[in-house]
Design a protein that fits this description.
about 280 residues; five-stranded parallel beta sheet; three-stranded mixed beta sheet; 10 strands
């Protein structure tokens, strides 16, 4: 059993020690994370293959490559992000001068989904580290291999009072949400997002919610139906259609539906023509 109250207490004590705030500390941790990913890329891709059946190309394109770009940008811009910014001073404050200082929140909770278990865990962690926060990371139970790898990564790179990974399922999610964090970053479904917001509001905790949805494709009479059908087919096929912004349904003008359905079928996209006349992608 996890003692989440003690875990959060230790992280908050470490944060209040000011250890995470210096530029040198943040940069050191970002470089260490970058080096770890370089050394363990094959292990990451293997975990993604076991969890989701992703080939190496898709694993790199949608997960590892994106994380590397996040790290590159964070390390390139960190000094500028931390630099105080001048602000206009009201006349009543003359001869004073105003500056805006960016300060970390404190202890962040990062809850990530199963469909991009590496990218949507490590990318927000990069932001937390760059901003000078501590972090409790909760990956999805449905991506067990990647979650175990993320826990090993945290153990090899970070002290537990700085960054720790909690494995498990709904019980662990519920237990963590009962604690008081300084920021929560959640990626997942709108249903669970409502629960996260409800629990966070009890502590007045600021939240970032990155929620999935049903992304429609709208096709009207001006479209090149053959091209539209091919593009939709390619999009529905990429990464097994698990991307939150990938096509989930088609809204088409009634007059083009018969011809468009024929083009979709030729591209291997099947459909259910329901009462709302919406073509549901079922490739």
């Amino acid at each position: 059993m996890h003692d989440f109250a003690e875990m959060v207490h230790r992280q908050r004590s470490y944060f209040l020690s000011q250890a995470t705030k210096p530029y040198e500390f943040r940069m050191e941790k970002l470089r260490a994370l970058s080096d770890w990913i370089d050394a363990n890329e094959s292990a990451v891709l293997d975990a993604l293959a076991r969890d989701l059946g992703k080939c190496a190309f898709e694993g790199y394109l949608t997960e590892v490559g994106m994380v590397r770009q996040e790290l590159k940008d964070a390390m390139r811009h960190l000094a500028r992000w931390m630099r105080p910014r001048r602000a206009r001073t009201a006349v009543g404050q003359f001869p004073g001068r105003c500056r805006i200082y960016s300060e970390p929140y404190g202890v962040a909770l990062i809850m990530s989904p199963w469909n991009y278990p590496f990218q949507l865990t490590v990318a927000p962690l990069i932001g937390a580290i760059a901003a000078g926060n501590c972090a409790v990371v909760k990956p999805s139970e449905y991506s067990a291999a990647t979650s175990a790898l993320l826990r090993r990564m945290a153990q090899e790179l970070f002290a537990p009072e700085y960054v720790t990974v909690v494995e498990g399922g709904r019980a662990e999610n519920a237990g963590l949400l009962e604690e008081t964090f300084d920021f929560i970053f959640f990626t997942g479904s709108p249903h669970v997002g409502r629960l996260v917001m409800e629990k966070a509001s009890a502590h007045l905790t600021p939240v970032s919610l990155e929620l999935g949805g049903k992304s429609p494709v709208i096709v009207d009479e001006t479209a090149d139906l053959a091209k539209a059908a091919k593009d939709i087919s390619d999009g529905a096929s990429f990464d097994n259609n698990i991307m939150c912004i990938s096509e989930k349904c088609i809204v088409a003008v009634e007059s083009i539906v018969p011809a468009f359905v024929k083009q979709l079928e030729e591209n291997g996209v099947y459909y259910i023509d329901n009462e709302t006349e919406m073509l549901q992608l079922t490739k």
